[in-house]
Design goal:
Helix 2 runs antiparallel to helix 3. By secondary structure, the protein is mostly helical. Helix content is 88%, strand content 0%. The longest helix has 27 residues. The protein is built from 4 helices and no strands. It binds magnesium ion (MG). The site of magnesium ion has 4 residues, from helix 2 and helix 3.
Length: 95
């Protein structure tokens, strides 16, 4: 269930503005990750802020497209796939 404030944001400001904001916030997070990894910048505070922004916008994206349940199912399947890959990795590297 989407946070009622975030549902209100989507209803008030509209699909186009909010879906563009998803992209904008993702680009801000990307920028902070690149600064951290490429330039060794001490910007964990900025990464915290931008991660929160992206999570807020992803909530609105899921609400906008009515895909929260499908995303949850897909995510669970992907995590199982990652686990299988990790198990294979461990087998290969334990030898
Ligand atoms: Mg931001």
């Amino acid at each position: 269930m989407v946070n009622p404030v975030l549902k209100r944001a989507l209803d008030t400001w509209g699909e186009e503005a909010q879906m563009l904001m998803v992209v904008e916030e993702m680009s801000e997070l990307m920028k902070e990750i690149l600064k951290n990894v490429n330039r060794g910048k001490d910007n964990v505070d900025q990464i915290v802020e931008e991660t929160a922004d992206v999570e807020i916008m992803l909530e609105q994206l899921k609400e906008n497209y009515h895909i929260a349940d499908r995303v949850a199912v897909y995510k669970a399947e992907k995590i199982k796939l990652i686990e299988r890959r990790l198990n294979e990795w461990d087998k290969i590297h334990a030898a």
